[in-house]
Task: inverse folding
């Protein structure tokens, strides 16, 4: 596990080059079906969300883009928004259409039995590609809340036909350098069946669509007992892993801070990424956070989450791949496992502190955040107006 | 399984005597964290909820009480509300305190680390006993949203001490003929740990409190793979089954119509009830619905749910207990299972139609509902004002 | 739901035409890792297993083939075995290779890091195609116990490469009219990762292999909360559903009698089959049982299981498809669900009794079995020798 | 988290005083229902198992006792066996009765519908108390494979009555300084219902029995999503935590090396232990391993497992309890979580190496094992005879 001098340099270079996207919605208020606990100082518009995301990037050095959610981040002039982001040192990342919060979508969006609703949903998807054009975004990140609450409610198969039709129409609209990532989710908000419940469904659609369609893995969207790193390894082998929505969960789609519930699992996922060379920008895998900070302050929670991904990545980079391959080839179960655990059990925080210092930032981003006075400042500045949230 | 004449009469008598309570909140709007889809004609206040509950009772004959949720059902004069219910032919059932929707409760209510918040929560519990006194309710139905999202967030053990203290204070306040039912829930809205996650926790507290404290089983609140009928049988053996919150779920706490997801499980639960003689009113087991009708119309969904419980009960009553006991004693696995399945596979709808006719109501409650014009009427009458929902 | 006269005739015709394959291994002894409880009268060789399977077919009329498991059913002359089966009125169904019970397979078969073990496993797969040729079997049913117990134990991705190689070599060997079905399984006997854990993995390999490769759905091989009928509907849409291994489970791969744990789920699966027209022989979907009768007598358990599939099928055939499609198109959630439940709640046993009488067999196959004296006879005849089981 | 000098001394003292029991059966062969892969050099009798356990203790310094399983460890003279253990430097730990591997137990042991089988099972339990007397063991460790595969197979409630009767009779037989630990298990080998499925059931029986009966937590015996550290904390609060069977699992009861599947969970469990002062010998909590080494060599796997528990314990001891309590009292979610994670993220291997050197043993027990030549020696010495395993 101990990397030699050149090995350590490569590890540090990889850590410096890492890119983790934060989502605009995680800076706003969120909650459960029971209650949204509003917090003070929360952004009131997309520009203020960009301010917060830019601060996270400034303090961590590895979060240079922000994902948008439309219409939560609707503005009149998207080019202006993108320019504002650039001024703040970040760029616009994935565009996330929302086709689940209007009354028309009660029984689904692109899978709705009503053709008029499907047409409306498709229009919104296409509008989001326009926004990609305007902002320079290269990723259309698709998640559908479509599904059924009751057996018999609709035809599972007919809904797939409708889904395929909408995906194809959207795919056609993508320009050069643009791609669509298709997210899957086992459950919620539909309870009996979701129309893209698992990676297999997303994969099959993406294969039929073509190279610009890839699977998006949200780490919180699986059935209990699912081996997520297997899915990651398999999709990488097929060239169909488009990116991640990172978060963590104990039971359902808890959307807790990534690495908070099962840091070992996060390490195993990053191990597959590293083994496949997919940390490299050329692999085109988007590492995005998708979280809800319901009870904890949002900006420091985001910083912490970025650091958690960095720590898992650093550990994965420390795995002695040659020794591991040798033990695996020998069928030495205990030794192969020990080599993996050796990296996992390493305390990588000193290494990451070094990396940050070399990047010219504070080795302790959370301490730097506390010293920045940001929390106190926005609590004053962002009084009045409507705090951003899932509903706005 | 074929009951002889006297057997059939007993089955019908039991079905006529069955009592299923409906919850006021299921008549109002509800949804997921993503969206509440408002419906037309939804009640705007507790009186209109009582109107709907009374209609469900009128059409089914077995739903003579309504559970209240405070403050969602807050009124100035609870005696007046109870009188109104009586005039409509039903009574006030369980009182459900709400200590999870105020900002103070972000980190819990009776388990909160802040003593001031705990005191406030306890005050509300005691206020709810006052409402029991005013309405004639005999059941305080306790569910706490308390729990933790992150490991380390609070002391699991200290929270139990605080919980025990609040429960004891509430218990002391109960009058003659009043009891408290303590509900457990694996998950949601807390994600890492809930303070009463399973029946064992509820049971241990109830044993320490005394005879007036019993466990409430919500059929949607268990980990995957949990055998709910075992819990029911065990609690009945211990004299600690206070009642049910019926609903159904495929994955988490979906709160779908009872019997919609796993009708065989509902039958097995009712089989344990019947075998233990706990259908009888003297057993003091409260059969209550607790559901959300997010996408389906609420009153017919409630009627359907009541009918689903009736059908499961009728099948359970048809089990040939003598033959079953004999096959079990003989260790005849296939025969014992066959006897149970024989009852389950019976179509009990004709029998229930007969029972309804003998009760002087329509054999087909849903058809009667459609003919009643209720849906159309309330859509007109309940315009304006604020539709009831979880937040109001 | 009430089929009119011509509708009823079609339902009965479909039920008469149904074909359910029973597995040779379910007639032998089986158990858990803790204990195999041997039963009296169990077959001692493949010929006696055929005797039992033929009896199940004779009594039910819909079980005309038997799946073999090699080497458990190894004989010197497979043509002779097939002729014996024909004489008894049944045929040889799927051939199931076993590459998990030799010491060489401790770390896997076709995915083993050792090329010599992989070559040995491939040889066995090819040998099984020889047996298909000799017996007239058209299905090679592939399940691999391959996987990992510990993270790091082997490369998840390299194992997929090895798997693909073995599958391709086997696929090449298939003759006209032969196909391979690729089974997936979440867990067991490998605990950390299985090499084909879900339908997506099987599907991706089958697509790359070609038309003769299809997915096999074992109803017990999914994570908790998985919607199996969705997978069935999706695979039918893609033309990649090869067949089923039917059984039922409460938690893991319990291999209980199909329909015993969740009869409603079995009905929903058959509903998707019926809606897609896949009950028809031309759809080439193989309906096979794969069960273990650890504590119950085997032949009557098999008869019961066949009947359970028939009952679920009959209910699915009774669904009023036109009314259902109309309610679905209207977005009438309650009505659509009610139409489905109406069929499920029907007691189809009288209908199936009629069907059996029209087929010239006893309307009550289990009663006929008891009268046959088979259990008593084999208990005498099959004394001495080695009872068949998983290990033999 | 950084302990000061006196803090560090206390941590080391606690680590030196830790006691982890290894199970005799983990030194023998084991497997799944599909296959037992025999290993060379496996013990052939209880004396050789003691040799292996003594070696594990010699190399780790913290495994000074061995649990026995009867009849797998049946000998003519238990006093002689205990003396042999003493000579080797260890003692006899918990006695584990086996009432699941005789044909009589097909439908259960102490819950069997047949009174003769129940009497036989009870006799064996009492015989095991005799063995406790003879060996100086203080713990009767009870796990029952009892349960049902099919709904209706037997009365859930009657089985509880039978269970209570057998437990009471066994309890009466316990001498001074002896206690019984009652293990629960969700599933396997019974599939539909187990007679002690969860901690609540075990707890309720233990409360009724008295102070000498306590709950045994096997970390692999829970439903998905269960928060095990909550159970540990709750049982400690009630004074009813008797001990652990440590192992790890990804899905069912995988019995993998403890700490291999979810090291963070193991840490959280040990955190509750440390917070409650239950690491201290006076707390009388038995820390026992219960694992199966199906594909990895057994002695080094056991050493590794002991080390995994030590590492989790060391991390738990490093938690800055004062700072944690303060952050919790302040409701500082992120800080409280960070304090916990700070300890978890520490590399405690250097600290444990120090502790070992102070104990006079090798700082790297696995390297010492490899140098010992034990594996090669027993491979020669233990040829011939019958290797120990679950069935022998």
Result:
């Amino acid at each position: 596990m101990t990397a030699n001098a050149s090995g350590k340099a490569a590890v540090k270079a990889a850590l410096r080059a890492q890119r983790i996207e934060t989502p605009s919605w995680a800076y706003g208020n969120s909650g459960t079906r029971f209650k949204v606990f509003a917090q003070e100082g929360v952004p009131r518009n997309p520009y203020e969300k960009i301010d917060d995301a830019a601060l996270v990037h400034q303090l961590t050095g590895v979060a240079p883009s922000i994902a948008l959610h439309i219409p939560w981040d609707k503005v009149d002039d998207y080019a202006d928004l993108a320019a504002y982001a650039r001024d703040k040192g970040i760029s616009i990342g994935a565009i996330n259409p929302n086709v689940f919060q209007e009354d028309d979508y009660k029984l689904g969006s692109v899978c709705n039995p009503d053709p008029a609703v499907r047409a409306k949903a498709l229009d919104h998807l296409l509008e989001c590609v326009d926004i990609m054009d305007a902002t320079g975004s290269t990723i259309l990140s698709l998640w559908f809340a479509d599904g059924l609450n009751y057996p018999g409610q609709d035809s599972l198969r007919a809904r797939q036909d409708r889904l395929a039709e909408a995906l194809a129409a959207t795919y056609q609209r993508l320009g050069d350098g643009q791609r669509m990532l298709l997210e899957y989710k086992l459950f919620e908000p539909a309870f009996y069946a979701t129309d893209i419940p698992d990676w297999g469904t997303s994969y099959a659609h993406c294969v039929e669509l073509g190279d610009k369609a890839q699977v998006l893995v949200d780490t919180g969207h699986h059935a209990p007992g699912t081996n997520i790193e297997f899915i990651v390894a398999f999709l990488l082998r097929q060239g169909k892993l488009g990116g991640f929505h990172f978060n963590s969960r104990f039971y359902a789609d808890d959307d807790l801070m990534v690495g908070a519930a099962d840091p070992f699992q996060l390490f195993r996922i990053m191990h597959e990424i590293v083994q496949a060379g997919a940390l490299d920008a050329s692999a085109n895998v988007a590492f995005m956070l998708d979280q809800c900070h319901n009870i904890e302050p949002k900006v420091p929670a985001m910083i912490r989450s970025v650091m958690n991904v960095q720590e898992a990545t650093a550990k994965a980079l420390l795995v002695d791949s040659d020794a591991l391959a040798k033990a695996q080839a020998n069928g030495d179960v205990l030794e192969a496992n020990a080599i993996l655990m050796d990296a996992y059990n390493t305390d990588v925080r000193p290494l990451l502190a070094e990396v940050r210092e070399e990047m010219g930032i504070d080795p302790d981003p959370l301490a730097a955040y506390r010293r920045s006075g940001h929390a106190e400042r926005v609590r004053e500045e962002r009084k009045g107006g409507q705090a951003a949230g899932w509903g706005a």
In short: Chain C touches chain A through 59 residues (CB under 8 Å).
